[in-house]
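Q: What would this chain look like folded?
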Amino acid sequence: MAYKKVVVAGGGVLGSQIAFQSAYCGFDVTIWLRSESSIGRTQPKIDKLKDTYLAAIEAMSQDTKAWCAGIADSDHFDKDACIAKTLAAYENLKLELDLTKACENADLVIESMTENVQDKITFYEKLAPVLPEKTVIATNSSTLLPSQFAKYTGRPNKYLSLHFANSIWKNNTAEIMAQNQTEQKYFDEVMEFGNQIRMISLPVKKEKNGYLLNSMLVPFLLSGLDLYVSGVSDPQSIDIAWTRGTGAPKGPFQIFDTVGLTTAYNIVMQYQKVPGLFSPLLKKMMMPYNFKKMAEVLKKYIDEGKLGMSSGEGFYKYK
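A: My prediction, written as structure tokens:
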């Protein structure tokens, strides 16, 4: 089935990016949000994404090192066409509070809510009765397994995971992971959808917390955070040790600010509550980690409104 209408549930950092990228690639896209205040938080993200895409297109026209594969192919770059697609995405992207209206005639619903098990279950229970029969559901969960939620969707055969890296216009990968009730047909359709929105679709053949990217990334982030909460060093020094020592563009705290401290907090809470997430070796390696202190530090930042780049301040300040 060729997808046309896409609904993204949640307008957070990645939810807004998924929606904008899908609209950029010509899909009819609606972001479903829970409240008027959610609209107030999401619209500035959409505004910023428009400016980000336009700035990236200008940079691409001047320097091939600035290339963003999610925007255009290097051998078929048409600056004016890319600008037109960006402006069309911005104008056509819809924000909706009514779940039934948002999902009308939807081909694909991408759930991109916070990493909270009960919140996701509650959402799926509300979603199931209002979906058209044809609709496929995908979760963008960073670490939670789709099998945890399949029975709440009302269509476990049409439910799977679709996970993106942050800054998807340049870090253009989509990890597609089935659970044991997902039909191959729908797995293949979502793989194709990933390619259609200019991602490199990566099949995850076995259900795995963290998929490919986060299975490697989360232990790294927790290691950096533990150094800070244990009083070993400060965020800036830890980031410099990593970026200068490896040549990586960002250290753990710069990454935390990018993805948002609420997401970081939810992941820490999940990891400390569910030790089965770790392999025996990784669990042994992480035993000294002070998860309780990590949660306390992140909660303090969140309570102070320091949510990361999206709020103008996290571990770093942003103008």
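The first strand starts at residue 5 and ends at 9.
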